[in-house]
Every structure is written in structure tokens, then in C-alpha cells.
Amino acid sequence: MRHRVQETLAFFLVVLLAVGAILGAAVRVLVSGFYDPGWVSFAVDVALAIATLILMWQSVEISRRQLTSQRRPILIPQSPPWHPHLSPWDPHAPSGLAEMVESPTWLARISDVQLWLYNVGSGTALSICGVLILQPYDPKTLPKQFSVFERLPIAPGDSREIALREGGSLFSGEERIGGIPLGVLQEEGIARLTLTWRDEAGLKHAAVFDLDLTGRWLPIGFQHEIPEDLWDMEKEKRVYG
């Protein structure tokens, strides 16, 4: 944030200098008369000032994008979803649990799931949201879904366990994040996980993964600097129905 403020101040300083040059040239023309050759000098000064503004704006924009890219958080699921009270990796878990988790129907029989999220980016992820939507069994009803709306951050290189609960969202699956639908296509997986988060500059990002029959996450796409995230979409759902 401090770097962006410094870039903005530098840009406005150049704007003031360019405006000063234009005003100075205009004053010289007014003092010397409109038929004075100073008009040529005035036109040159204006052209140079405009060119300086354009080059400075491009430089600031390139610098801003490079800085944003260097500090961009990127979230990925680090584990398949599991029941919050029965982890297949627990040495005391009952026999057959791992096979149950790999079943395409086990998610339909529970109300909460957990998974680990890992920040592989170089910035802190804030305002983390996630929605896991299962394959719809009836196109006339909302598909079963689990969601999380989390304020706690995940620092670069850190991971954290999150809980997604049923009933916290009302998505149909046809909504889109960066052009990618929230719902999973029948030939692509048994469920689709959509994650959104914000960086320290307030920019919004998203990642979409499909869960296959073996419990693996298949990346579908990453979207950066999106206009709205799951926070925004869920708020609209609650307000406008």
C-alpha cells in the first residue's frame, strides 16, 4: 500500500510539473502577443508535456502491475475433503474409512467437510471464501453445497485447515467467477471447489478446482483482479434473492 501511495504522489508531481510548463508557455504567448513566433514554442511545450504525462502514466502502471504480481497470494487445496470428525489419515480411524472417502456419494451423506488450504503465492490472502458444489441430482433444485466465508488470513508459505458447512450459500451452480461456472460438469468431476480471496491492496482473486473420483484436485483455472468475489456474490444473493 505504501508503494502505491508513493507511485501516486510521483505521478501527480509530474502532472503538476507538466501543467506548470503549459501554463508558463501560455503566459509567454499572452505577454508577447498571439502573432509572436512564441506560438511554435508553446505548441512544442504542450506536446512535450502531454508526451511526458503519457510516458509517466505507462511507467507507473507497469510498476504497479509488477509490484502487484510480486505480492500476489495464490491459494490451492492441499488435501482432499474429509469428514471433520473422521479423518482417513488418523491412525485411529475405523477400517474402510479411506474407501468411503473415495466413494463419489460420501459427500452427499454429510453436512460438514474440512480441507487444508495452502498459500503458494508471495502475498497474504485475506477475506477467504470457498464453495464446494456437488454434482446436481435434480436440475430443478439447488445442488448440495458446502461453503466457508473466513476473515482469518493465510500468510505466504502457510497452510490452514478450514471447515466448509452445508447451508451457508445459495448458489445454483450456473453463476460464474471470471467466466468459469461454480457448478461442475458431469464429465469433469464429482464436485467443484471455487476459492476467492483478496490481497493486501484489496484486489480480488479466484481459483477453481474439480474433485475427481480418486480424491485429487484438478485445476480448472486461476483468475486475478476479478470484479467481484464470493463475498460480493453471496451478499447479492441475500439482498436480492
Description:
There is one protein chain. The protein has 241 residues and is α+β, with helices and mostly antiparallel strands. The protein has helices at residues 2-32, 38-70, 97-101, 230-240, and strands at 75-77, 112-119, 126-134, 145-150, 159-166, 176-177, 180-181, 191-198, 204-211, 217-224. The strands form two sheets. An eight-stranded antiparallel β-sheet has the order 1-2-5-4-3-8-9-10, with no helix packed on it. A two-stranded antiparallel ribbon has the order 6-7. β4 (145-150) and β5 form a beta hairpin.
Summarize the entry for a quick read:
By secondary structure, the protein is α+β, with helices and mostly antiparallel strands.
Which properties best describe this structure?
single chain, 241 residues, alpha+beta, 2 domains, 33% helix, 26% strand
Q: What is the mean predicted local confidence, pLDDT?
A: 77
The gyration radius over C-alpha positions equals 27 Å
Order of helices and strands: HHEHEEEEEEEEEH
The largest sheet has its strands arranged as 1-2-5-4-3-8-9-10
Q: Could you describe the largest sheet, including whether it forms a barrel?
A: 8 strands, antiparallel
Q: Structural class from helices and strands? A: alpha+beta
Strand percentage lies at 25-35%
Shape, per Cα inertia axes: elongated
How many strand elements?
A: 10
Give the helix tally. 4
Count of discrete structural domains: 2
